Amino acid sequence: MPLTPTTLPRRAEQALERLGDHPSLFFEGTWQSSGELAARARRAAAGFVALGVKPGDRVVLFMANCPEVGLTYSALWRAGAVATPVLFLLTDEELRHVLADSGAVAIVTTPEFLPKILGCADGLPVVVVDGDGGTTTFAELESGDELSIVDRAPEDLAALLYTGGTTGRSKGVALTHQGLDAAGAAGFAAGYKPGRTVGLLPLPLAHVYGLMVSCTGLHAVEPGRSILMRWFDPAGFVSLVEEHRVQSAALVPSMLQMLLTQPLEQHDLSSLERVSSGGAPLAVEVAQELERRVPGLEVREGYGCTETTALIAAQPPEERRLGSVGKPVGGIEIRITGPDGEELKTGEDGEICVRGPLVMSGYWNSPEATAQAIRDGWFHTGDVGHLDEDGYLYVVDRIKDLIIRNGFNVYPRDVEDVLLAHPDVTAAAVVGRPDPKVGEEVVAFVSLAPGSTATPEALVEFTKEHISKAKYPREVRIVDAIPLTSVLKTDRKALRAQLRG
What we know:
This protein is α/β, with parallel strands linked by helices. The chain is 30% helix and 25% strand. It has 15 helices and 27 strands. Helix 3 links the parallel strand 3 (58-62) and strand 4 (82-85). Helix 2 packs across helix 3 (67-78). The chain starts with 7 loop residues before the first helix and ends with a helix.
């Protein structure tokens, strides 16, 4: 049945009426019910209006995970405003860019980031959670009467999220109420549903993946419970799964790799049925090893990006295919195109292009960038992949990360997957280094398991046994940790800088 367009606060009220008041969110020792959270959001909405926030205004969230992140989303949407979540790993310069580009009228933060915020806010009102030192506290924000929903249209802006800026200054991605709502419905249908399950959420809520997973609860058909982590740490994750009998969780691949460093066999993780992985390509070997060590667990990889509200494809309930990111989610169409825009045949690698209700309305104040990204109704992801004969999507790599060595295309992920198959390698990242003879040379950075004695030379020899002569790395560098971006993806820019240094 097609989804009837509505706004997110309207959808939230429907969910509360449908599911009733029930234990909903656990955070650092305390449960809050769905009714209690809804009442807090109504009062906070009135607080934002009193602070001067008007319909359509952008408000930046610069917060560690806590219940007030979700409350701020709900309150802003109820007040007709636009949530602008920003990951706390941004530099001062990047934060100032977001504040200026978005035209933010206020900022909500948590105490640990208050000094940074005050140094960048330039006089903007600052709301701080569980502390003081800003314009107002969150307790003061929600101390008044409840606010009725300020009517907005489904196609109006609900969230403005900034891309990582790996190819220049970060751009604001405009997401509408109906787009986020459709993403929540698609995520629910794909199996991320809370239902009568206990779900663990360690992802930053200020990232589109965490935002999308949060929206799935608006489409639940039965009450569910969520366990929220302030920060991800693998030992804490394992402890919460065991304590609360967690059944499902949403992670990114770097988190899965961290979990493999834990003594998983020493804990009762039998309740954990499903882990969904997104945000970056997942090596098959990592999924298989986690499933081997946690019997009964199934790792289900999906795929999306900020511009598609975090969802493009997910593993269908009927059949999972390891190595694939699944089939298009509800309402999404996928086609694979060549350099001239022609649609390629089944099995041929090309650029992944998508269209559907989950696609952004455009880049904020950037009509040229929008026109470049969305052509003839199709959003061009910049990712390379192919579809198989059954419609399953396989993501190969980013177009911009392609290494051309002696005229041969080398995708970093192909080399990284081989390295991750080595028993001593816990993380791997591959980049190209300019070379006067071959154009670009393949260089790998790896992290090793504690106690490993593997040498760079041995790892080069290992890759030569499993990948073609044109692709294997001529140089392997062993590092303590692979650098990650603010959204926990491999920071290839930082690795290239190391090569130049």
